[in-house]
Design the sequence.
């Protein structure tokens, strides 16, 4: 074989490279292909998102502070806010099991001095990436 660099006679580099290039290709690109396919068959949607509104005695009882603390404890992202109507609204995003746990906490626990009459959850959906960073109180 003649050297592709224009050298006369056989070239040891090109002979060796032509034999090993498929192995080099697999060893370099193989891990990248595996990492990009780790998203599973769900189309990459690995998170849940839900909006909430909590009714009852939930203002003036540190409900937002406890909600923020619980969100951080569970490792979910989102926000919480008082409304003029006397309710508390917000959004939670994260792994589906943690979002479910937060929904249960919002429905049944809340802050120690609160009284939860009703919790409404709307706009529940799967998302492929988190749209909110951290968990905080909005004003």
Sequence:
């Amino acid at each position: 074989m003649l050297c592709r660099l224009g050298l006369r006679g056989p070239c040891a580099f090109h002979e060796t490279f032509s034999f090993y290039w498929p192995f080099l290709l697999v060893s370099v690109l193989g891990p990248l292909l595996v990492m990009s396919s780790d998203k599973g068959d769900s189309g990459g949607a690995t998170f849940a998102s839900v909006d909430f509104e909590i009714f009852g005695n939930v203002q003036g009882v540190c409900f937002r502070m406890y909600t923020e603390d619980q969100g951080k404890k569970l490792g979910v992202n989102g926000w919480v806010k008082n409304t003029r109507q006397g309710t508390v609204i917000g959004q939670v995003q994260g792994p589906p099991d943690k979002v479910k746990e937060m929904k249960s906490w919002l429905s049944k626990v809340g802050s120690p001095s609160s009284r939860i009459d009703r919790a409404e959850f709307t706009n529940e959906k799967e998302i492929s990436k988190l749209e909110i960073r951290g968990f905080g109180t909005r004003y």
In short: The CA atoms of residues 12 and 18 lie 10 Å apart. The beta strands are 47-57, 77-82, 88-94, 115-127, 135-137. Residues 32-42 have pLDDT under 50 and may be disordered.
